Amino acid sequence: MLMLGLALLLATAADVPRGVPDDDACVALDERGERYPICFDPGDGFVVGTRMRLSGSAMAQAVRTGVHIRSGRSSRSKGSPWFNNHRLLGLDAWDGEQRGLTFTAYDGTLRRHLEEGFILVPTARPARIPFPFDVTVALRLGHLERRVWEGPGWTLETGRLGLLLDPIRAETERVWFGVGPVAGHAVRRSREGVSHTVAPFTELMFDAGLESRDGLWALRASGLAGWSIGIERGLYFRARTDVGLERVVLAVADQPVVLQLSGAYVHRDAGLARRSEWTANVGLAVRVFGAR
Amino acid sequence: MLAPAVSLACALLLAQPGNEAPVLHPPTTPLPAQDWHAPTVCLRLPPTKNVPSGEWRAQCDDTAQVCRVSPLRELDAEGVETDRLQARVTTCSIAFDEETAERVKGYRMELARAAAPPGWYRDERGRVMQFNFDLNRRVWLGGAWAPLWHDGQVQGRMRADFGIAVEAPSQRGKRLHRLRFLETELHLGVPSLDLTAARYDFSVERDDPLFRVTTFFGKPRRHDLHLNLGLWMETLRVEELERGGEVGRFLTWGTLHATVDLWHSKDLVSYVRVRAGPSFERDYANGFNTFVPGAALEADLTLDRDGFHHLRLGVEAEKVLLAPAVAGRPLRPERLRLQAGYEVIILAINDQPLSLLVDGRGMKRGDITGVPEQWEWSASAGLRFSLWAPARRSAPMATSVKE
Predict the structure, then answer these.
(1) Domains annotated on chain A, with CATH
(2) N or C: which end of chain B has fewer CB within 10 A?
(3) Which long-range contacts (CB under 8 A, 24 or more apart) does A127-131 make?
(4) Which residue of A has its CA nearest to B133?
(5) Does the ipTM surpass 0.85?
(6) Architecture of domain B138-402 in CATH?
(7) pLDDT means per 10 residues in chain A (292 residues)?
(8) Does A122 lie at the interface with B, CB-CB under 8 angstroms?
């Protein structure tokens, strides 16, 4: 199913020219001549969803909410476009034997696009060396993980900041692939006390996304691997990756209902005990105000 | 001087069938540049091999009977126009003035580079790049190697730093407001954290003298004494550090200093000043509040017009008062800090500057329980990547700087 979706997504993304479709192309007329939207923006909307979560041998029901905002602006200081994705107040909670939740106050990427990237060497007559990458700032603030079944305690990533290079340099907000170093700070509170770790650009992160022109399909993948350093002691290696596929299956009152498939693997970073685990999810979500 | 009288008009009419087509003269070296402030017209000339669209931007001079023309689009490495419009150009206008158009038909058409805005440079292919950066308006991220000499030992450290700097002049340019947010330095190896939530200060150039003294020895003379008094304040500064297994933790609720600029540049950006005043602090390793008067002599100098070279110097002294007696430290501990740093932009990636930072620091403090008061020294070398960093307000035009 995942591969089928990916193939369809790639096919639709490749067939069409870049850019947002015309307003007329995103609206259809019913028999009575009334207009209804047929294009959606996967980066916009208030998302509420439910899903089944499989982790190890444990199956659980989960809910997910969040606010997604996609914006574009032209930089006043540089005169070039920015493609920004903001995700606010993201909550993911699951029940069952391994009850838990994650909450993220803010998670966003801000990509500055240049048609022809370059490095300027400030010689008397400025030299220009080709640099075929867009620069993306990936910022996450206030990511909390609480696992009730592990006992008292929580993990809070106070902040994470990545500087990613995007070799695709798409002129649209629908395609991106950034990879680069990340700095961050996290604190774990458990029965044993509080421990702080920092990653001073010692981790590598990637973030990629591909959406069909009409917004019916969306694929997103991200990953992170590297070392974080304990303030008190210790050096910790961790890695995690996740991939998700979305398909708008219907719209209720013009609000898209989305089928979501996703999977994730975490290596030595899950919960207070820094476990390794994988999860798979399938569910439905409604994205209110998600029409283009 | 390019005469604005020749509005564009030439434009479309020159392209009318039947009109005698003007001839483009071969380019000169270096290629002249158009004037950023002169009116520009959109001009259509007969297609050429390199500019098949025939679309140009032109500035015409009635007196010299010359038009400087540049392609509307950027050129590729072979000099053939691409589909990318030149960025950061003024809008070119189109008007229909038959008389003007008829007149400029006989003008000499010279190839030129389109003008670039102040602080930006445009190459022969029409590509624009920023060569002037304001590092006092930026969001920076940095990392450095910063070894520490303490108690006769050298200890390896790494430093990560972050901060947001904003600067805003007043309308008449007589006052410059500086703001810093979340200025953070985190050292690993020998752990320490120094984070300030917000800091504000301003420099001012006062028109009126603080005092004037008139002397009557011989011819009466008036002597004006100007004193540029300003303000410096910060709030919520967290300082945590570990030395010899002992930990100091301090939270500054607020600091209010008066400043006197001993010297400042005309645009107020560079300065040498003294400042002094009180701060209120919490020593949360020992659990009490203190009153800390302090004074500093500091300098922040931008050494060149394009903002590539920066020198920062500082000497600071503080005395911790109203602290209860704590075993293992003086009743009124003191802090002394010295700092000298130099930052230079080494290149810019997509118009975002990457700079090299080197500095040396010295510190002597007696406020950490169990750690004897002694000098410690550190040096660092690292890189900073700056976001935002627009051109400086005083940025010159590229033509006057690079050519």
Answers:
(1) 2-288 (2.40.230)
(2) N
(3) A128/B123, A128/B127, A128/B129, A131/B349, A131/B350
(4) A77
(5) no
(6) Beta Barrel (2.40)
(7) 45 41 74 88 94 90 96 82 95 93 97 90 85 94 94 94 94 94 93 90 96 94 95 89 96 93 96 93 92 70
(8) yes
